[in-house]
Design goal:
The chain is an alpha+beta fold. Helix content is about 35%, strand content about 25%. Strand 4 and strand 5 form a beta hairpin. The longest helix is centred in the C-terminal third of the chain and has 26 residues.
Length: about 110
């Protein structure tokens, strides 16, 4: 699993999901980790409204198993999550969990600065 200080590099087939608050969810499309996952995530995101999926073009390669999603915060990986057959409901739960964690983090940083 990447360490928090490591940079993520992307490939041209990657998809990044913006969760707001500088958080990205990176989908690496390989083998069976494929468009059905993007579709489920897209549907879950549509219902959440504030999120979007963007295809991105990019740079050099970072090896990841096909079914790993890296969530990053301001370009720093937070965690690697393994998705095999994730339902839309599970994605929605995940999105909510991430948002909560980010909001809490933002509040803590704001409190620390003031």
């Amino acid at each position: 699993m990447p360490q928090p200080h490591q940079q993520i590099s992307f490939k041209k087939d990657d998809y990044v999901i913006s969760l707001g608050f500088d958080v990205l969810c990176l989908f690496r499309l390989k083998e069976q980790f494929c468009l059905k996952h993007i579709k489920k995530m897209r549907e879950a995101i549509k219902e959440e409204n504030s999120l979007e999926i963007k295809p991105i073009r990019i740079i050099d390669d970072l090896y990841l198993p096909h079914n790993i999603v890296i969530l990053s915060y301001k370009d720093n990986p937070l965690m690697g999550l393994e998705f095999n057959d994730v339902t839309k409901k599970e994605y929605k739960k995940l999105i909510k969990r991430i948002k909560k964690a980010i909001i809490k983090d933002a509040q803590l940083r704001f409190a620390a600065e003031n």
